[in-house]
Amino acid sequence: MNIKKIAPIIVIGIIAVLVIALIIVFLPPGSTPAPGSKKAIILGSANDFFRKDGEPDFNDGHDAKFSNESAQFNWSGSWNTNGTGWMDEHGIGHNSSGFIALAALGGGGYVNMEWVYNWTDFYTLLKFAVYNFSAWINVTTNAWTPTIINIPPGTGARIGLRWLNSSNGIVRTDWSMGIIGLTPGWNFLNVTGIADNSTPNEITQLQLVLAVEGIMLPWDMVLFDDLNIEYWFPPPIPSPLPSNIDTDGFPAQALHVYWVLRNNGYANDNIFLMLYHKDDPTIDIYVNDSISNDLPEAIVDVEDDNVTANRFKQELNISISGSFASGIQAKDELIIFITDHGSNKVSSDGNATFHFEADDSYITEGEFFNLVKQISCARMLINIDMCFSGNFLNENANIGSSWYNIPNSILISSTTDLLSWYWRDNNNADGFAGSWFFHQFWEQINQSQTVGDAFTNAKNFVPAGQVNSIDDIQTPLIQDNLGIKDTWVLI
Fold first, then answer.
1. The pLDDT value given to residue 18
2. CB under 8 Å to 133, separation ≥6 — which residues?
3. Rounded to an integer, what distance in angstroms lies between the CA atom of residue 140 and that of residue 474?
4. Which of 196, 218, 219, 256 has its CA 20 to 30 A from that of 384?
């Protein structure tokens, strides 16, 4: 090569090296381009599980599982049959042998029948309580041909809560979805309703309804098993409110997430903690660890009366200078975790709302979505820990295919459009206060599991005193808009 051509190349190389060296020497410490930060906003906006004075605690109220051990479960005496078709008992159940309603029509054709159980013959109706009725249903053959007869929408095999007044008049019936068509195996249905006297007729009675309506071929069958009824008091509910008791469950779950992150390298400046624990200075997550109060060492950014929907919306608003969201950068990883009561009764469209105890305010799912979708970051994990949380992340109160599309996110809910269960304190065999699902999820995260593995392990957990997994009880949901749940490790 010609030496005249080599010389300029060497000179250019030397100059480039000197420039890089000078940049390194004179750059101030910490100003080198850094990877994105790990950030989190954690919200716990209640410390009350509402209940009625003199009644058992949250998970031990008037809940009844109908089985062959239940004295009141007696087809010939306690359940009344309306309509065509017939009912019987059968020996092969959902989990084991036990009583099942068997619906059949000997000659084939249109079937419209109900079995009705008057709950208030056995238990006092608790006004303003939320009742949740669930059952497992098995349609044994392709029993339905809805095009033959004009059947109103929403029928099929379903269950209902029927509210009556003192004159035995029906005030309303809250129905589950209906199963129409062949559904091999056992399928879970549930329905919730509030004894809220939303009409001039005062509700004084509650009935449980098993219903079958459709075209059935000869000897087609619909089987019902493991019927379960429970109640609780999630606000916002109409006045007068029952008395309330400060409990650890919600603030403990928020603190659990906070301490998992803090103990695994998340800078406190990158965690924004909103925590309602008014008149409750001691929050104990675990019964068996050496820390009897997990609150004092936590740095709480917003607490008690300031934990409102308005303040939460401000912190999520990227256009408000100084808000938490306004400081999130494009390379950051973000966790949003919120826990409290949820409702699907507040909005007229049936979509879910998230409640704030401080001022009885709430944020709708639409408001939440419109704020969060503006946040630009590399990846985002959104945990919604409340009743009806799947509905909260779903566009049309139709759980399944219409999740909110936040492209840079993984969305996880503690349930679908169902109640979500918690330990109100750590006085239980599991030994922790908080969410049955999300406590287990964050325990797995604390062990460096991927988001996907943590979700799977948590939903398969069987809480103390239960025979079914969390997946069977409340069905947590995950929507991976990034496609990285099986590789993303948060800590």
1. 45
2. 159, 160, 161, 176, 190, 191, 192, 208, 227, 228, 229
3. 24
4. 196
Could you give the angle at which helices 249-262 and 436-446 cross, rounded to 10 degrees? 10
**Phi, psi (rounded to 5 degrees) for 299:** -95, 105
pLDDT tens for 181-223 read 656 677 878 787 878 765 567 889 999 998 888 777 766 778 8
Q: How confident is the model at residue 69 (pLDDT cuts 50, 70, 90)?
A: very low
Is the pLDDT assigned to residue 263 strictly greater than 90? yes
Fold that domain 58-232 belongs to in CATH? Jelly Rolls (2.60.120)
> Letter for the amino acid at 218?
P
Separation of first and last alpha carbons in the chain: 54
pLDDT in tens, 422-437: 888 888 889 999 999 9
* 3-state SS, residue 80: strand
CB 307 within 8 Å of CB 358: yes
Per residue in 229-250, pLDDT (tens digit) is 776 654 333 333 344 556 788 9
Each domain of the chain, given as residue ranges in start order, spans: 38-50+242-480, 58-232
Which of 154, 117, 159, 112 minimizes the C-alpha distance to 136? 159
The residue behind tokens 């008791």 is 245
pLDDT tens-digit readout, 453-466: 999 999 999 988 77
Which region, left, alpha or beta, applies to residue 440 given φ > 0 means left and ψ of -120 to 50 means alpha?
Answer: alpha
How confident is the model over 118-155, as pLDDT tens digits? Answer: 888 777 787 767 787 888 888 776 555 544 444 555 57
CATH number of 38-50+242-480: 3.40.50.1460
pLDDT, mean over the chain:
78
DSSP letters along 392-461, please?
A: HTBTTS-TTT-B---TTEEEEES-SSS---EESSS-STT-B-EEHHHHHHHHHHHTT--HHHHHHHHHT-
d(CA 218, CA 179): 19
For residue 462, with 0-12 CB atoms within 10 Å meaning exposed, 13-18 middle and 19 or more buried, which class applies? Answer: middle
- How far apart CA 167 and CA 209 sit, in angstroms, is 19
Given a contact cutoff of 8 angstroms between Cβ atoms, the answer to whether 387 and 343 are in contact is: yes
For 240, the token pair is 């007068």
Of residues 301, 306, 355, 128, the one with CA closest to residue 231? 128
